[in-house]
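>> received
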Amino acid sequence: MRKILTTTSIAMILFFVACKTTKSTTSSAPKVSKSGIIPATSAQLEAIKGNYANVTIDELNEGYKIYTGICTDCHRAKNIYKRPESKWADIIRVMSKKAKISDTEKDKLTKYIMSIKATQPVPNK
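>> returned
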């Protein structure tokens, strides 16, 4: 009986050790998204500074909040990667009027979208 309890105890310990997560909580790996809809990171900030020298990470993340809030209140979020920058400029111009967002919100939204486009991954061929 004692042998069975010992064997069972060892099996349970091995089971719990084997099931322990290996996911790191301090990973610095960049966020990956198939649609580009992610909060802004330092990569997006650096990529967009050439076009918008004084942009801040807070502005980009406010643009993200506008995109995932005001924009998606009316329709589902669109894949940022699928549309070229020139198309996004037209979409933002037209939709900002319909959504009645301020010029400041429009500016933040534009910077966010363009920062995501500036860091768009190259598709696998």
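>> Residues 57-74 form the longest helix (18 residues).
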